[in-house]
């Protein structure tokens, strides 16, 4: 059976606190995009994960680690054979690895008859990656905490077409946050929770506002150049998560496709996608725990 693991983007991202653990509290929002990795999952005696990108094969794959811990927690020795056809770029701010792990966990939960609730799965999976819960939540969301305290995104998602553009280099999430910390200690103030409460109350929320963008741009000229070019062709362009992919909104598909072709031709992007934002996870109808 084949299952989708969609990309996510952050519609905005504010860093609200730094924690002793090194993690950061965020105020952010997640929406899915109509582009996905594809997982082929079949019953098997042992657990195995293979990937079209050989670097992500085997027991180090996040999907393997999450499922192995999940079966141990429930005293199971069950297996599954999982093949991941990787279509999303890596270290891209699109949550690809987390999405693969979330899809694998949803399928394993039903297939192994564990039937954990969505809330229990989110709590279990968060320590493996702060982005996994937003996929298990199955709906576009607002997030607090390290990105795991989720509630429904309360407004319509931006209409029109979105262009995702990956600049050919990935970014390390810890490195981007470290850069942010260095700037914060140089007196760049954190966005405090009372400010983000105002952002949330605003009928036109702060779409496109990403506190990590300046750091990502300073770490990578590719990110910087891509963002500048996107801003010259779209009224709304910003970076997703900790990068390196950027997002731009367009009123019609033709304009978005023309921008994608231009970026690819000029070598400012090596991967692009033109499509729509999604409010619902493609596996929502599978019903977690049912
Ligand atoms: O949880 P995930 O694997 O995505 O996080 C990778 C790294 O990114 C963490 O080890 C941490 O350094 C940083 N991070 C953070 N605050 C978050 C999410 C991630 O500092 N909310």
* CATH architecture heading of the largest domain: 2-Layer Sandwich
**CATH structural fold name of the largest domain:** Ribosomal Protein S5, domain 2
Can you summarize the main beta sheet?
7 strands, mixed
Mean pLDDT: 93
Radius of gyration of CA atoms, rounded to a whole number: 19 Å
| Helix/strand order, N-terminal first | EEEHEHHHEEEHHHHEEHEE
> How many domains make up the 3D coordinates?
2
User: Structural class of the helix and strand makeup?
Assistant: alpha+beta
Which helices and strands occur, and which strands form pairs?
Layout: E1 2-18, E2 24-44, E3 47-51, H1 62-73, E4 79-85, H2 96-111, H3 118-125, H4 132-136, E5 141-144, E6 149-152, E7 161-166, H5 173-185, H6 193-201, H7 213-219, H8 221-233, E8 236-239, E9 246-250, H9 253-265, E10 271-275, E11 277-278
Parallel strand pairs: 3-4
Antiparallel strand pairs: 1-2, 2-4, 2-5, 2-11, 5-6, 7-9, 7-10, 8-9
The structure holds cytidine-5'-monophosphate.
Descriptive report:
This protein is of the alpha+beta class. It folds into 2 domains: 2-155, Ribosomal Protein S5, domain 2 (2-Layer Sandwich), CATH 3.30.230.10; 161-278, Alpha-Beta Plaits. The chain is built from 9 helices and 11 strands. It has helices spanning 62-73, 96-111, 118-125, 132-136, 173-185, 193-201, 213-219, 221-233, 253-265, and strands at residues 2-18, 24-44, 47-51, 79-85, 141-144, 149-152, 161-166, 236-239, 246-250, 271-275, 277-278. The strands form 2 sheets. Strands 1, 2, 3, 4, 5, 6 and 11 form a 7-stranded mixed sheet that branches. The longest helix is centred in the middle third of the chain and has 16 residues, at 96-111. The protein is globular and about 55 Å long. The chain binds cytidine-5'-monophosphate.
């Amino acid at each position: 059976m084949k299952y989708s693991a969609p990309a996510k983007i952050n519609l905005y991202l504010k860093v609200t606190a730094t924690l002793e653990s090194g993690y950061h509290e965020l105020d952010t929002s997640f929406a899915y995009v109509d582009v996905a990795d594809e997982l082929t999952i079949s019953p098997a005696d042992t657990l195995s994960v293979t990937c079209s990108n050989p670097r992500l094969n085997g027991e180090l794959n996040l999907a393997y680690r999450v499922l192995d811990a999940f079966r141990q927690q429930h005293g199971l020795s069950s297996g599954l054979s999982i093949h991941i056809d990787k279509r999303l770029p890596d270290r891209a701010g699109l949550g690809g690895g987390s999405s693969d792990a979330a899809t694998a966990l949803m399928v394993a939960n039903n297939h192994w008859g564990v039937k954990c609730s969505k809330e229990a799965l989110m709590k279990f999976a968060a320590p493996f990656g702060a982005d996994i819960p937003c996929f298990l939540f199955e709906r576009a969301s607002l997030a607090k905490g390290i990105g795991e305290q989720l509630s429904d995104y309360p407004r319509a998602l931006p209409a029109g077409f979105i262009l995702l553009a990956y600049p050919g280099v990935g970014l390390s999430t810890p490195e981007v946050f470290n850069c942010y910390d260095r700037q914060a200690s140089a007196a760049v103030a954190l966005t405090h929770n009372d400010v983000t409460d105002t952002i949330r109350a605003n009928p036109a929320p702060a779409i496109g506002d990403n506190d990590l963008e300046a750091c990502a741009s300073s770490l990578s000229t590719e990110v910087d150049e891509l963002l500048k070019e996107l801003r010259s062709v779209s009224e709304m362009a910003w970076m997703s998560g900790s990068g390196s992919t950027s997002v731009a909104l367009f009123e019609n598909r033709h304009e978005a496709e023309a921008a994608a072709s231009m970026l690819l031709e000029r070598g400012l992007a090596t991967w692009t996608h033109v499509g729509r934002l999604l409010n619902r996870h493609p596996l929502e109808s599978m019903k977690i725990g049912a």
